[in-house]
Amino acid sequence: MEALSNIVGTINGIVWGPWMLALILGAGFFLQVGMKFMPIVKLGTGFKLLFAGRKASGEGQISPFNALMTSLSATIGTGNIAGVATAVFLGGPGALFWMWMTALVGMATKYAEAVLAVKYREQDELGNYVGGPMYYIKNGLDKKWYFLAPMFAGFGAIAAFGIGNGVQANGVAAVMESTFSVPTYVTGIILMVLTAGVILGGITRIGSVAGKLVPFMAVAYIIAGILVLLINIGALGEALSLVFTHAFTPSAAEGGFAGAAVWMAIRFGVARGVFSNEAGLGSAPIAHAAASTAGPVNQGLIAMLGTFIDTIIVCSITGLAIITSGAWTSGESGAALTSLAFETSLPGIGAYLITISLSIFAFTTILGWSYYGEKCVGFFFGAKSLMPYRVLWIIAVYFGATADLGLVWNIADTLNAMMAIPNLIALILLSPIVFKLTREFFASNGATESGEAAE
Fold first, then answer.
1. Do 279 and 28 form a contact (C-beta atoms < 8 A)?
2. Which end of the chain has a smaller Cβ tally under 10 Å, C or N?
3. Cα–Cα distances in Å, from 246 out to 85, 235, 243, 266?
4. Per-residue pLDDT at 87 exceeds 80
5. What is the CA radius of gyration of the chain?
6. Please, is 158 exposed, middle or buried when counting C-beta atoms within 10 Å of its C-beta (0-12, 13-18, 19+)?
7. Are 297 and 225 contacting, i.e. CB atoms less than 8 angstroms apart?
8. Shortest CA distance to 291 belongs to which of 51, 45, 65, 39?
């Protein structure tokens, strides 16, 4: 097991090297510039369409709102609690700055992914809408690029068991054991039963559960996080100063914090940022392809909100709570660090709050990623593979809950990068289509933002 961990760690260091971070940030920045920073400028338009999108308005299986909630169910998970804490522990406060940068360019990436997902989606033999990178590669690019489609779907099908299953179940089991002394195998069994009750009903049931659970859990966590920040309001200015200064200068060792170079702040900030909001991975557009939307750009404007909500809002609250409380120098890492930060500020209830939040976040992530994984498998084997995949997914939840956390995190990080490569290449090659659809949409609407799309 130690040898395997070392091998995975070595591979992880390679795939998350400078070129990979440059590809993720570079692709997002290229798309932002190509759209004249429209995803940032039109953020308000996205929120207007989101609230209007609670009802279906076109062909598809779920409402635009539920499509975003399904996407958010997969992104708001352990990355927002344990992932942010790990980034700060390994990269220092400056890692939070690089998470923000990843999110700002990632909004353009997520927008482009959803636009292409709706533009090039198909219907399977059961009449369900299917889409995502494998389909916009297949239907939007020349045949010489087709190899990228099975490459993405293959990595996606495997990666789902890491980022969307193992890491999430493991996070819940670990925090339940440390807080409530619940054995990991008990948590594994409970998660299996709850997961089965939802995913066996397909995307309609997943979307329905996500549409109710995600807004509730996100708002509750944000309120609790703001309360922690208010309690530590005196330290907020210094915390923000640390974030910006340590983004460009090394973080010195302090207390239980071992210190970190600028490269570590960038590497772990970007890696955990991508892990959390998934911009560039190509996972979210699989959910957005099922939306009953007026057109590609409509769904793109809604999709980009996922990155903003996940990282700019939720991850920022976690990171600033850790820094303002002083817990970042404690030597703790992962969910235990976030738990310590909340417990320090809200004694008696902080640790329980994080335990419950992480458990709900992780559970919904398991639901969302089960859909992503099955669509990747369905690309190869069709609709007949869906039920066997769901059964395998349910069983894997148990093994994820009892696995080694360090190894699971490293495998998830590695597979994230492998998924992102074919998707980012496709996004760059198809960027002229994204730019064209965007121009036509806003030209035809005359900036009225009425929500009527140009197909």
1. yes
2. N
3. 16, 16, 6, 10
4. yes
5. 20
6. middle
7. no
8. 65
pLDDT at 311 over 70: yes
Place of tokens 């990632």: 106
Dump pLDDT digits (tens) for 180-233: 999 999 999 999 999 999 999 988 999 999 989 989 988 999 999 999 999 999
The tokens for 147 are 């190899």
Bridge partners (DSSP) of residue 260 are: 251
Q: State which amino acid sits at residue 438.
A: T
Which single residue is written with the structure tokens 């299986």? 61
Alpha helices by DSSP H, listed for 162-295, are 167-180, 184-199, 202-231, 236-245, 262-277, 284-288
d(Cα 29, Cα 346) in Å, to the nearest integer? 39
Tokens of 279: 């911009």
Is 260 in contact with 419 (CB distance < 8 Å)? no
- What's the pTM? 0.91
CA distance 258 to 70: 38
- CA gap 165, 159 in Å, rounded: 9
Please state, in angstroms and rounded to a whole number, the distance separating the CA atoms of residues 73 and 164.
10
Give the separation between CA 304 and CA 68, rounded to whole angstroms. 9
Chain length of the chain: 455
Closest to 434 (Cα-Cα) out of 142, 35, 88: 35
Distance CA 223, CA 217 (A): 10
Could you tell me how far CA 346 lies from the centroid of its own chain? 28
